[in-house]
Amino acid sequence: MKKKEIYNGIVESVEFPNKGRVIVEGEEKPVLVKNVLKDQEVEFRVLKMRKGKAEGRLLQVTKNSPIEIEPQCQHFNSCGGCSYQNLPYEEQLKLKESQVKELLDPVIRGEYLFEGIKGSPREREYRNKMEFSFGDEIKDGPLSLGMHKRGSFHDIVNVDACQIVDEDFRKILTATREYFTEEKVPFYHRMKHTGYLRHLLVRKGIKTGDILVDLITTSQINRQEDAWKEVLLSLELKGNLVGVLHTINDSVADVVKDEGTTILQGQDYFYEELLGLNFKITPFSFFQTNSLGAEVLYDVTREYIGDTQGKVIFDLYSGTGTIAQILSPVAEKVVGVEIVEEAVEAAKENGVLNKLTNCDFWAGDVLKVIDELEDKPDLIILDPPRDGIHPKAIGKIINFGVDKMVYVSCKPTSLARDLVALQAGGYQVEKVQCVDMFPGTVHVETVCLMSKVSE
Ligand code: SAH
């Protein structure tokens, strides 16, 4: 096989998150190609050859897969947000379930119960948060507001008909783009570092209907955004617009960052409800993006940790304290640790709001803070970010010697890696349940119960 040459092959399987293994006649090893489905016949160009392993870029699908359907979103072929809008939901679930099992089986020692996957209560319009980017779809083209184009760092495609958010998101998105197009306001150019419009953050409580909108710009143009706010206020929305904000971010990194926020209308927070508890959410604090899916995830977490009566529980990587608060009514005490201070403040406020008096929240890096905690845990919940748990933190977590831990993972490759260390430290995996919080996309959550092996 040669670099830059074009080949044809059949997709044998798709590994997590989105890596197709393509079999080419006469070649021993499969070639990795993204954005394909099992049993498709594809044409691709070889991009890389490393240690006999080839990686290719899809040029075209020459024969569809028998399980493939018409994409459920008109933006599917250009937008980089979703990967599986062309698979029926049942097939998406089967795929994610087998991907997780394929990653975990080789690392888990001994017998364990694999409980399959639970689907999201909503297959469409499930997200409570979206961060849209301003840019253009073609160089010097008209202003666009949406998602990164598939496989592109620079181009932004409009996603006016995005299917993973509801009608209110779509109306706010379209009205905002039309307003700034008419005003001829430039977007912030990621390479040149010039311009103004960066992101549009929209968050909506799926249960409460509260909507919070935040426009993120540089300070390169001195504008008052009251006229934009009026445009939003004039929209006919199903939910209630509780706050319209304008945040300045002059940093060069392409992430939403807060360097000062002005409230143009209403308030700078909103509420969402989960499993009967209320949560106050601020613009930039972490909150599971699929509220109904989060209820399924937290239900599994609660069931897996089991009897909490009289127990002290550590909720490590606690975000706005959702898991801690769901477990606290029965437990003796719950201690949450979270690195984002704003989220910790929100967690404390939420504890008060929910009249919970046995939750403690600490701000800081799990790696450091767990040395300083006075309480000794009986049970531990781990819900780290995508990169998983710092290897040194795993050692400290093992040293607490608790009987049971539940690891909630948003990236099964990180979970597989961390399980190796946790098993070496004396834990065994009892059972695993996948939960799909992200229909249409490659992502999947995995909950894993571990128990201490008796000596
Ligand atoms: N359990 C929460 C949040 C899980 S997301 C929920 O279900 O809503 C992971 C969280 O870990 C994020 O809030 C992130 O800010 C936090 N985090 C990332 N690195 C961390 C670290 N080193 N120490 C503590 N918290 C961290």
In terms of quaternary structure, the protein is: single chain
- CATH level 4 superfamily of the largest domain: Vaccinia Virus protein VP39
Computed over alpha carbons, the radius of gyration is 23 Å
Number of contiguous helices? 9
Kindly report the average pLDDT value. 96
Number of individual domains: 3
Largest pleated sheet: 8 strands, mixed
**Biggest sheet: strand arrangement:** 6-21-22-20-19-16-17-18
Tell me the CATH architecture of the largest domain: 3-Layer(aba) Sandwich
Overall geometry: globular
Task: Kindly estimate the percentage of residues that lie in beta strands according to DSSP.
Answer: 25-35%
Distance between the termini: 53 Å
Number of strands: 22
- Helical content band: 10-25%
Q: Within the CATH hierarchy, at the fold level, what is the topology of the largest domain?
A: Rossmann fold
Structural class designation: alpha/beta
Protein name: 23S rRNA (Uracil(1939)-C(5))-methyltransferase RlmD
Keywords: Methyltransferase, S-adenosyl-L-methionine, Transferase
Enzyme class: transferase
Active site: 410, 410 (nucleophile)
